[in-house]
Each structure stands twice: as C-alpha cells, then as structure tokens.
Amino acid sequence: MTRNTAREIAAHLSYELSFTDKTVEELLQERLTSEAFAELAEEDSLYTEAPNAKQVAYITRLVTGVNEHAAELDGYIAKYAKNWKFSRIPLVASAIMRVAMYEILYMQDIPNGAAINEAVEIAKKYETPETVKFINGILGSFAREEISQ
C-alpha cells in the first residue's frame, strides 16, 4: 500500500466520523483489520491490500488528528470558503480538506504541496470538477496565508 492509498483511506475514515456514533478509536479498531479490508475490497479496490504496521500508524495519526482538531480545521475551511456556508460543502470534500490541512499543520515531514496535490487527486475520484477546483483553491489559500506567517 502506498502513502497515497493510506491517505485516501484516512479521508474515508474521516468522512465516516462525520456520521457515526463510534469513537475514533472504535472506528479505527474496527476498520483497520485484514478482515475489514477483505470485506471492503469487494466494493472498492482501494482496500485490496491491508495496511502494515507503519501504514496503520500513519492512518491512525491522521484520522485521530483530524478528529481532535476538527473544529480548528473546519474553521479554516469556513474562513477560506469565500461565499460558501460550511454546511453547503459536501462531507467528502470537507473530509479530504481536513486531512490535507492536518498534514500541513501538524506533519512537517510532508511537504505542503504534496498534501494539497494528493487532496486534489483524491477529490477527483469523488467530487465534481467544480468541487475539485474549490478544494484546490481553499487549500492553496490556506497554505499561503496560514503557513507562511
């Protein structure tokens, strides 16, 4: 499994946290198993390879961090979503942006450009071209304005 795949799985799990009653720990424990991946592989090829320990640690760090910093990350999304109410942003798009913003803010070993590019590539699989541009614009503005200060 590549880091790109692990990042996309983290976005899936962050999205799922938007509507589940499970804690982040329960969700991760349930979803990051070989059995869960085998089940999901029938629906999505993303899950054909279960993560190794290093990948589980990366996914766990991302999903836990996104969950812990959700209010902060959503605040940034709302700040840079010009003329959009946060409630209008698709849940998948906000999950993708949260993952990228968390990487930019809290994972200095990941270049900002890589986090943004990966978010855009993931978004292309799930969102309309307009939403992909919207995500790219928000993340670009966020990185320029918040990180360069």
TrEMBL record:
What organism is this sequence from? Dysosmobacter segnis
**PANTHER family assigned to the protein according to its UniProt record, in alphabetical order:** ANTITERMINATION NUSB DOMAIN-CONTAINING PROTEIN (PTHR11078:SF3), N UTILIZATION SUBSTANCE PROTEIN B-RELATED (PTHR11078)
Q: What family is reported?
A: Belongs to the NusB family.
Biological role: Involved in transcription antitermination. Required for transcription of ribosomal RNA (rRNA) genes. Binds specifically to the boxA antiterminator sequence of the ribosomal RNA (rrn) operons.
The family database entries (InterPro entries) matched by this protein are listed as:
NusB-like_sf, NusB_fam, NusB_RsmB_TIM44
GO MF terms listed in the record are: RNA binding
Q: Name one GO biological process term.
A: transcription antitermination
Per the record, the domain of life is Bacteria
Q: What is this protein called?
A: Transcription antitermination protein NusB
One GO cellular component term, please give it. cytosol
- Key words, A-Z: RNA-binding, Transcription, Transcription antitermination, Transcription regulation
Where do the NusB/RsmB/TIM44 domain residues begin and end?
Answer: 5-144
NCBIfam families per UniProt: nusB (TIGR01951)
